[in-house]
UniProtKB/TrEMBL annotation:
This is ABC transporter ATP-binding protein. Belongs to the ABC transporter superfamily. Pfam families: ABC_tran. Residues 7-252 form the ABC transporter domain. The keyword Methyltransferase does not apply. It comes from Actinoallomurus acaciae. GO terms for molecular function: ATP binding. Keywords: ATP-binding, Nucleotide-binding, Transport. It comes from the Bacteria.
Length: 263
């Protein structure tokens, strides 16, 4: 028998109130979206701004309630109200590394706090050593533990966000535009790190991005969203070399044009 996917999302629908509407009407930000992420797989969700990518990500981590749809994790239903164990197993890394870290806490305390919230994975020995090890895992020097987020670069902050997520030994990391705010060279370093971690930690990732160049570097499979619906899905190679949907072709053309402008 084959294992169930690590994450399965089936028929997800999310609506929001239409702003300014007198009749309290709602619109569907996500309409019937279905996708899977297998163990050790990186699945990217791409699409233009407003296509519903972040809303899907927020549903997966339990930050947003869905109107309809079924989600499972390792074969078991994902309840709207998450257990501590599920909150630990599915971690999210956000776009803006600085604002996702508490500015008043030193980096060491930020990592330590994650363990205090999830004692089931807290290291048994001295915390200081474990913090240094957690930082080393994401390529940060020990002295970073004593610094505040404002004293770090954007790339270093994003590595701290990753260290905090990884300290909880998650099975799935949901990256929402996790490298979009970084310079291109720093982006490449963080993408390399994510690929390394996928191998060393056997991680799975749901990688939300509007940047097809980034997605090409990291994803095994790509899901294309437009106006709340999934319009195309396939291996990254297939989607990039022979997109079947007109919208995907337009996204790829737009990305190529941007690339040309940058050269
Ligand atoms: N909390 C909310 N209340 C009302 N409307 C919302 C809310 N969150 C998202 N939306 C709307 O739902 C639609 C999808 O938004 P979403 O953020 O999921 O798209 P996205 O593809 O991630 O876009 P972006 O790349 O710009 O973040 C948009 O029209 C957005 O304005």
């Amino acid at each position: 028998m084959t294992n169930p996917p690590l994450l399965s999302v089936d028929g997800l629908r999310v609506t929001f109130p239409v702003r300014g509407s007198l009749r309290r009407s709602r619109f569907a930000a996500v309409e019937g979206a279905s996708l899977t992420v297998e163990e050790n797989e990186i699945v990217a969700v791409v699409g233009e701004s407003g296509s519903g990518k972040t809303t899907v990500a927020r549903c997966v981590v339990g930050l947003q309630r869905a109107d309809a749809g079924v989600m499972t994790f390792a074969g078991s239903p994902l309840p709207a109200r998450r257990t501590a164990e599920l909150r630990r197993a599915i971690q999210m890394v956000f776009q803006d590394p600085r604002s996702s870290l508490n500015p008043r806490m030193r980096v060491g305390a930020i990592v330590d706090e994650a363990w205090s919230m999830h004692p089931s994975v807290a290291p048994p020995g001295p915390r200081a050593d474990a913090i240094v090890a957690a930082l080393a895992d994401v390529g940060l020097e020990p002295d970073v533990a004593d610094r505040y987020p404002a004293q770090l670069s954007g790339g270093q902050c994003q590595r701290v966000s990753l260290a905090r997520a990884l300290a909880l030994e998650p099975r799935l990391i949901v990256c929402d535009e996790a490298v979009s705010a970084l310079d291109v060279s720093v982006q490449a370093q963080v993408l390399r790190l994510l690929l390394e971690l996928r191998t060393t930690r056997r991680l799975s990732m749901l990688f939300i991005s509007h940047d097809l160049g980034v997605v090409h570097q990291i994803a095994d499979r790509v899901v294309v969203m437009r106006q709340g619906r999934i319009v195309e899905e396939g291996t990254a190679d297939a989607v990039f070399s022979a997109p079947s949907h007109e919208y995907t072709r337009a996204l790829l053309d737009a990305a190529l044009e941007l690339n040309d402008l940058g050269t």
